[in-house]
């Protein structure tokens, strides 16, 4: 009530006997609930503000937050509020829906519930993006599962069916006919040779055609799966920034004067996603440039390049061919798990020469 900080016990005793303290006590006695509610609101607001600002929506020990709160010399004491202990206050936060609370062996833990419209919109956007990514993965897994089931149905061999041997009379003799092969051979020998040859050629052509169709169906399914994977990688790795350390770039801005225009430089260190420190290849001069002031450099075939954007972002490869009509090229990946893969029709802006 008095907002006074006493130096020692004697000072506290003198203050309680003062006229101002007595006047504050009378004010409090007239409407005690009003002051307690006001102090409780001030305490809870300060506690929640510290929790939101310092820990966000993370789960944290309630006592740790309280210790950080009372470290401020101007804080409001809990004995001026409606709660006698920190446990009562934490339970109240849970009942009011202001925090997610749970009790463990290490004490009570709280997690702030962010009800800010901007925060809620950001969380919804994040959840929507995660759901879309999950849906894409589920669709891809479902497609692969369908292809596997289709392959099993196409190439599944007919399994023989077995039946139980039943004998009506136990005294009856069991006889087996093992002359089937001989009869078949005799029947085949009785046919003309021309008919046998034609039949054999027809069977070979049919089996060859069947094997070709099976190989084509396998290859088409595999190509479709690879194309889906590449589209997913392209969507995930396509960014609006492409600067990478170690690549060679060409300066295309005249804001620095004609002295640096069209000169090549090596990216030495990234400042952030869109800017970097570069060093001229033919001079010991360092510059700080934005990615809008430079462009990628396409070397001659046989030189090493780095993918700076797109599905294969970060991979290293060798330039194999350049198509000047469509401003694209073919690159063979030379390092990592994809070594040997030839990536065709790569756009100029997606690769750049690698500094040696």
Into which percent range does the helicity of residues fall? 40-55%
Question: What's the arrangement of strands in the largest beta sheet?
Answer: 7-6-5-4-8
Proportion of residues in extended strands: 15-25%
Shape: flat
Largest sheet properties = 5 strands, antiparallel
Number of strands: 13
Which residues sit in consecutive blocks of at least 5 with pLDDT less than 50? Answer: none
Span between termini: 74 Å
Q: Structural class of the helices, strands and pairings?
A: alpha+beta
Mean pLDDT reading: 81
One letter per element, helices H and strands E, the order comes to HHHEHHEEHHHEEEEEEEEEE
Helix run count: 8
Oligomer: single chain
What can you tell me about this protein's structure?
By secondary structure, the protein is α+β, with helices and mostly antiparallel strands. The chain is 45% helix and 19% strand. The protein contains eight helices and 13 strands. It has helices at 9-16, 19-30, 32-55, 62-70, 86-96, 117-155, 180-190, 193-237, and strands at 59-61, 99-104, 107-112, 248-251, 264-270, 275-280, 286-290, 294-296, 304-307, 316-323, 328-333, 342-347, 351-353. It has a five-stranded antiparallel sheet with strand order 7-6-5-4-8, with no helix packed on it. A five-stranded antiparallel sheet has the order 12-11-10-9-13, with no helix packed on it. A hairpin with a 5-residue loop joins strand 6 (275-280) and strand 7 (286-290). Helix 3 (32-55) crosses helix 4 and helix 6 (117-155) packs antiparallel against helix 8 (193-237). The longest helix has 45 residues, at 193-237. The protein is flat and about 125 Å long. The model has no long low-confidence stretch (mean pLDDT 81).
